Amino acid sequence: MFQSHLFTKTRKESPKDEVSKNADLLIRAGYIHKEMAGVYAYLPLGLKVLEKVKAIVREEMNAIGGQELIMTSLQRKELWEQTNRWGDDVVDVWFKSELKVGGEVGFGWSHEEPIANMMKSYVSSFRDLPIFVYQFQTKLRNELRAKSGVMRGREFVMKDMYSFCIGEADHTKFYNETIEAYMRVYKRLGIGDDTFVTFASGGAFTQFSHEFQTIVPTGEDKIYLNREKKIAINEEVLNEETLQKLGITREELEEVKTAEVGNIFNFGTQKSLDLDLYFTNESGEKIPVWMGSYGIGITRIIGLLVEKFADEKGIIWPREVAPFGAHIILIPSKDEKTSLRAHEVYKTLNARTGVLFDDRDLRAGEKFADADLMGIPYHIIVSERGNAERTVEVKERKTGKVVVISEEKVVQGNFEALFT
Amino acid sequence: MFQSHLFTKTRKESPKDEVSKNADLLIRAGYIHKEMAGVYAYLPLGLKVLEKVKAIVREEMNAIGGQELIMTSLQRKELWEQTNRWGDDVVDVWFKSELKVGGEVGFGWSHEEPIANMMKSYVSSFRDLPIFVYQFQTKLRNELRAKSGVMRGREFVMKDMYSFCIGEADHTKFYNETIEAYMRVYKRLGIGDDTFVTFASGGAFTQFSHEFQTIVPTGEDKIYLNREKKIAINEEVLNEETLQKLGITREELEEVKTAEVGNIFNFGTQKSLDLDLYFTNESGEKIPVWMGSYGIGITRIIGLLVEKFADEKGIIWPREVAPFGAHIILIPSKDEKTSLRAHEVYKTLNARTGVLFDDRDLRAGEKFADADLMGIPYHIIVSERGNAERTVEVKERKTGKVVVISEEKVVQGNFEALFT
Predict the structure, then answer these.
(1) ipTM for this prediction
(2) What is the pLDDT of residues B207-225, one digit of tens each?
(3) Which of A100, A133, A154, B349 has its CA 20 to 30 A from that of A376?
(4) Residue B405 C-beta-side C-alpha neighbours within 13 Å
(5) A21-73+108-309 CATH choice from 3.30.70.2750, 3.30.210.10, 3.30.70.20, 3.30.930.10
């Protein structure tokens, strides 16, 4: 894409009223627009990042048998009353409104109830199970506070998956497969080494649930971690009983600041009992379905990646989620060969990795500052200097390292190898 | 995809309380689930169709310079008050709620206001224009009636595009390019020959707006059409003045029932004046931006395609929007070669066009009925009969015509050519 065509512009000043680092940088670099506190629009660059994160999650959920669908935002009061979760005293994040035809309607802050209820149309026999479904849904939550940018908003995109099994054994098998799938997601997002499966408080059915926590200095959560043993405990369940159960002492654990990037939950049969979701087993008995839920906050992940990797110059995207594979910076030059070379490199490389081409009529310094702020991992600098030998400079955003390579080599796009 | 893995099932009975043909068929075939009146979830097959329609629209909007973004559902009261569209007496489809922090919030039923308002951050000089942006947004509208299935719901997906130009000449140029882009979309959707640019009532700035109307017997609209002259007039503006202006007589027009599949609108500078969206021209003068808006109801299109093409056996999808390129029907057989052949054809063809493979343990008649209901345009019937000469039957859903071809030929996937 030609940068001169992109309608967004970078800005030097931080937006007013924005206290979070992630939203500050994402707004300044032109990725998002703040509609109101905790509510952000995704501009062309931001939407590209969003779709790339979704694509990674989609691939990994499909790989473990997930079937994608999309539920609705509008929610029936009667359904949520069945599980006693309509009341504002029970769930304090509902947005609710009045239907013109009469009656109250809610806006989806979560989707266990409608998905489990829908399954009554498709589950009758043990032969119908297991079923794994997921969606990327825009959740609406009436949060009292919204000061964490895209990391905790009133409107955000979440991947929520639900499993429906004949019993605990099958459930546990899928639950563990999901843990592995989630870790593959985090690895591809560039946070695999700093993300830990963490024991957190459970629910009616289980002592613990599991969260995925990523180390980040600005994180809102605190976990207690033993990296070697790969044991991580959320402070909310750090007590003698938990330590004994996990066979570890307080002294072996370090306290680290983290942000939650996923959680998985064993519902047991509670939801199915509440909503009448049964199947018939081989002996003809009616048995409640065993359910689990599995969440990843997609827009939250974007905020986390910004907070974790940004430096004083701006955003640094991990390779797989960057809006483009490379950022060509054409240095103003009186020799028209310079621009011609840049366009040639663009044409070939764009088809291969997607390229943002800074073709704007600006000084080199401004272009460099913008590129650093926007955070595409590799900058390809085309200047007069390389015209004679047809070379370009490739700069790694993360390290600032520069290598000079030939045009033939740059269009192959294998930039990682240049810096390892 | 193996049909045995798909969690949805077809049903023979029409759902209760569903009066529209489109929702009836889409529910029975497992494409959608009704959450409440006018509110439908999209199941795996339905989501595939939705994404295919979006992909066509996206390609054509990108081709005319559209930049994709995604605005928010939550809307600020103060912004809509600026254009006098917050009041329920002016806009009767608002869903509204209370923020926990205090104050009212709306749910996006349209997005001109927030998009125009956002552009104030990016438009200052004539050099910044024109800008064309679009989104696929889930709109929420508090409709009094919702009896048209996915064709007019309380929650639906719309592509809305907005143009920002320096004046009327540039606006008109893009407006006309959009008309052509829309007609390319309808052609790819299989409704090009039956879709007409139609004169409809205008707004503050223009005598007419333009709708795109598709002929369909169950349509809610009525237009007056001259196919030869390609003149179409919505009944709401059919009067002497219009006829004179368009140089046509009432006698030259036939009355046809249609459904609206798109509309485009010239805002002039009204919105920009209301919202203070100005640019500075070459002489340094402050000028309000000239705006237009361009809508296509994505989920509405899905309903239209069902209503227009379905027969007594079920849905018939146009090729470009079908959830899969072909539907393999394996006829139960004691010769294991039959199943082996079906799996081989599946493997190659699935990679090429996407295939639904009916591998279920059911009688042939049930499989045929399901395939007819689901409406994938080409059925590939693999039976014992073809084992000796390694042939399969390809049936065109629309016409019921069958041709027998070799396995080598079927995996090439070029089915259209077989029936023309």
Answers:
(1) 0.96
(2) 888 999 999 999 999 999 9
(3) A154
(4) 20
(5) 3.30.930.10
